[in-house]
Amino acid sequence: MSEDVGRIRTREDYRAARKHSIEDPEGFWAAQAERFHWHEHWNEVLEWDFTKPDVKWFVGGKLNITENCLDRHLEQRGNKLALIWEPNDPKERFVRLTYRELFERVCRYANVLKHHGVKKGDRVCVYMPMVPELVIAVLACARIGAIHSVVFCGFSAQSLADRINDAEATTVLCSDGMFRGAKEMPVKSVVDEALAKCPTVKKVIVTERVGWSVQMQEGRDVWLHEEWEKVDGNCSAEVMDSEDPLFILYTSGSTGKPKGVVHTCGGYMVYTEYSFRNVFQYDESDVFWCTADVGWITGHSYIAYGPLLAGATQVMFEGVPTFPDAGRFWQVVDKHGVNIFYTAPTAIRSLMAHGLDHVLPYSLHSLKVLGTVGEPINEEAWHWYKTHIGKGRCPIVDTWWQTETGGILISSLAVVTDERPSHAAWPLPGVQPILVTADGQEISDNEVEGLLCMKFPWPSILRTTWGDHERCRQTYFSHYKGLYFTGDGAKRDADGRYRIIGRVDDVINVSGHRFGTAEIESAINEAKGVVESAVVGFPHDIKGQGIYAYVITEGPVADAEDMRGRIIEAVVAGIGRIAKPDKIQFVSGLPKTRSGKIMRRILRKVAENELNSLGDTSTLLDPKVVDEIKEGRL
Ligand code: WT7
């Protein structure tokens, strides 16, 4: 395997690669795919039809992604560190695993799964905090061809149950509890509560983390450390078809319940490694740190898979940025000599608010490249990151992508292509974005704004939504014929750089976490005394967007604080603590059209405090309710 195939190191390389990828996409991607270990070569690089949608990459190819993450490196990198795990509490010892050690643990965990009857194609739900066993569990599933569905530990028992049931998972992998800053929180008991509603689950494998005694259901629940002793460390990898599902990851959309985005083995492998190496300009001796949780796509692509595929050393962090104080990130950067640091704008804004006293004690001299992901980064935060963390010498890559895209699609490449604050900037070679008007006409000029679509597939595009292919078609491929629609609006500047503006649908992005307004509304409506609700996003200094809820109650609200408390409880129970509304305004009615549709535009303007630009309200069923809403604004 030649390490440098397709590596883009200069601006000329970038131009050449982009040209190649447009003129001959199949040749371009085949060269990338040749870098990996395949049991059988593919017959055809690509088959695609966006109208169905039906997309297949490396058709007929056979592989196992974990052989490419682990076995492939053993000869040259067996003793290289794969994972440096930094615990929540800095006083606790960190853990280092070489590629060989990680390989052995993944094989052993895979044997535990097999021992408990998990087979290729079974769905395994992973509900775990950021401990090494989380990555090991994910890779163990992939090793035996089981489809993992990781659910972020901040989701409630109800959300967990919904996801388990949608995927008909047979097995749940969890821990006893978790540490989060100064707090200890339950995990297993949340699983127990969820499983009361999940008939398909036969086994629960529990990792010990906090040392709590938890209830273990006879015949269903087992401790990992006990099972570990019963198996050996040899586990040959299941040979998978390139298009076999690798994982399901649930994400919110503008309607209905979260849907299970499905990624497949071959294309996802090729794209996550390609994007990792090129965006961050990763070199063999670099230490990479992505602060995301493996519960989100960022942690799948740039913790569990991309860095390991590239043979990189990475830091995995269990804790939060503000524990024991707001200098924790920078302390960890110095402690482990991190070279490439990848985080979310919301984290940067929150640390910025804590002041430079938490930054100045650290040298940060190891840093070479900084990255952001998940939401637009405002210029102030960008400059703070550039100046105080990067000391003016580190490029910042503002990486735009989605759960559905599997990997970074638009970003400058560190050092190679230029950067501009708040601009994701350039499509990666192999990615073909376009802007369209609301009626689907391509806008070909520059200095324009439009809806962001992709006109050609890339290897890690989603293939379907679990159990409901039609929903996948409708959500992403039906708005504009022959195009994948991202749901984002974007601008393109005079030179062709993209600047992402944000969602144009009813999706809100709170601290980089994605929620559908409908999903939050239905959780709110579960609270006793609530008749109806409408939720919109509003600009929030730290979170990017906050959640603003307008709620109609049965009769007048006697004790507003009590009612708010009940609503928040309902959201925490229905979705999780990450979706708590920031503002709850009680209203007697909502602005509706004569056909009964809520005019969210008006609610958004009020939440944004743009009271003079509400637009035409004369078509409303009851225009007077707008005055009441304006007056009661929080
Ligand atoms: C939505 C996708 C990609 C992993 C984390 C979020 C927004 C993402 C950026 C960026 C502006 C961004 C978009 C996108 N987004 N990255 N660099 N600049 N906006 O994944 O939960 O699937 O959300 O996040 O609105 O559609 P996700």
Description:
- This protein is of the alpha/beta class.
- The chain has a domain at 527-631: ANL, C-terminal domain (GMP Synthetase, Chain A, domain 3), CATH 3.30.300.
- 31% of the residues lie in helices and 24% in strands.
- The protein has 18 helices and 31 strands.
- β19, α13 and β20 (396-399) form a beta-alpha-beta unit.
- α3 (65-77) runs antiparallel to α4 (99-115) and α15 (517-524) crosses α16 (560-574).
- The protein is globular and about 75 Å long.
- 52% of the residues are buried.
- It binds 5'-O-[(S)-butoxy(hydroxy)phosphoryl]adenosine (WT7).
Q: Outline of this structure?
A:
It is built from 18 helices and 31 strands. Helix 1 (11-23) crosses helix 2 and helix 6 (157-167) packs across helix 7 (188-195). It starts with 10 loop residues before the first helix and ends with a helix.
